[in-house]
Each structure stands twice: as structure tokens, then as C-alpha cells.
Amino acid sequence: MNRKRIFILVTVVLVLAVFIGATVFWAREQLCVARSNLDHELYSALGIEQEEPGLADVLPDALLFGSLVTAFFGPVISFLSFGIYKIVDSRNPVPFVVTMIVLFVLGVVFVAVDSYIKKAKAAQTVVNVHAPVIYLYPERETEVDVELSLSGELTYTYPTYESGWNVTAYPSGNLVDADGEEYPFLFWEAEMYFEPDLSHGFCVPGSETEEFLSAAVSELGLSSSEASAFVAYWTPKMEDNAYNVICFQTDCFDEAAELEISPAPDVLLRVNMVWYPSDEYVDIPAQDLSSMGIPLSAREGFTVVEWGGEMYGE
Q1: How many other CB atoms are there within 10 angstroms of residue 78's CB atom?
Q2: Distances from the Cα of 264 to the Cαs of 144, 167, 238, in angstroms?
Q3: What is the DSSP letter of 51?
Q4: Residue ranges in the chain modelled with pLDDT below 70
Q5: Is residue 34 a contact partner of residue 15, using CB atoms and an 8 Å limit?
């Protein structure tokens, strides 16, 4: 086998190794993230059993990532192999020198772009949004499209979010997807960049968390079943703290996580809570919850309800 064929074979093997390595790496990362974000406490609170994601659930994204990495590094590997081949074949160092210069420039550009992205993200407040649950209550059987426009990235969805959710919704709140699978709600979590409003809220002793949350979300307009799920999910995370500073969000969250729903709902209620633990009582102006929510009596027509929250500084 001559030198040229050897270098072609080596180049193909290296490119395949990059593709396989990137795909396996991304699949493992995605699988770890999906499993760590699988919120057993939420499903337990809602009385739902949920299997852990498997390799098949993350393989499409992993293959896409592997293809993109190969598309970037494949030409670089080929160019490097060609330069080395020219040196071996002709003893001329120029191709290799040019190759090294190109690789150095690409490396500098990559590091500069990566540094810029990290600095841009560091300048923003990162908030891990947990367990937003979306309920759809149409007046009659209706096909509904739901899309999220986020200042951030989704980390887990249920059912799988593919450029949106498309489901058939029933007045009972039951949802059915195109494959005939039934769901009680739409669920998402994300790493978002937004500055929550912590200027008004409540400082609640940990031991009184359950009582406070139950009264607060009911005043905001959640039904008894929605409020029970909210309280059952958040209370175990908060009741052991000395105090919890709780601030229900309005415009800042809506702007950072816009909901686009078709057909448009007649009533849209979003209950989002930002909280953080405190060892001491924090004197904070109280929020007027009665002016923030939508009473149950006002649920007329197609109603959409969402609740969720996040611990600030997590």
C-alpha cells in the first residue's frame, strides 16, 4: 500500500473516530441531564409513574451533534493529513507550516468565541426553572399547538418538545398526542437568563410553608387539584429552612418565557414562584396577590393554567 492510500485511510479513520466519539459523548451527557432532571417528586405528587429516559430518547440529538462536530473537524483533519503527506512525499515543509498556521488561527477564533459566550452568559442571572406544568382546558375537544420562546435553553420536557407541542385537548384536561399517548399536562424545565423581581414578596417560616403556599396559590387562582400538586411538590424542598423569601413573578418571567398557544386561550393564568432560603427574617414589602391572579369564577372559555418555580441562587 503506497503512502497516499495510507494517509487517506488514516484520515477516514480519524474522521470516523471524531464522529463516534462526539456522538457517544453527547449521548452520555444528554442521558445524564435527562435522568437528573426527571423530577420523581413532581410525578409522585401528581400520582404518575414515569420511566427514566433511555438511549433511544437522546440518540437523534447525539447523532446531530456528532455530525456537526465532524463537519467542523473533518476538513481540519483532512487538511492536516494532506499537509503531513506532502511533507513525507516531497520533503517540503511549506504545506505543514501552512497547516499549523491555519489550525492555530482556528484555535484562537474558537477560544475567542467561547470566551465571549461565557462572558455574555456570566453577565446575566442564570435561573434554573423547575417543574412548570401546563394544563389545557378547552370547552370542547380541540387540537392545540403550544410553543415556548425562552431566554435560555430547555433541559427537560414531557412529552418531548419538538419545536413545540401538538396535542388534542379535552375539557377534562386530558391531552393526547399524535401517537395516541395520553398526558395530564405539558411539563418543561429550563436554564434561563432573567432577573427575577425580588422587590416584593413574603418571608415565611419554614414550618408554615405548606399553609402559606396553599393559601397563596389558591388566592392566585389555582384549582384545588392544581394547588395540591403545587404544594406537594414545593413544600418538601422548603419546609426545613428557617425562613423562605417567596416572590411571585409577573412580567419579567412572562417576557423571559413567552407562551404561544393556538388557538389563543380565553384565559391564561401563569403562577411562577421565585424563592430563596434565609437563616433570618427578611423584612420585605408584601405582594398584593389578589391583583395578580385570576379567580376560578373567571375561567370561561378555553383556559390555560401553568404553575412552576425556582430557587434563586441555586
Answers
A1: 16
A2: 9, 14, 35
A3: P
A4: 1-4, 7, 32-53, 83-100, 103-104, 110-111, 113-129, 314
A5: no
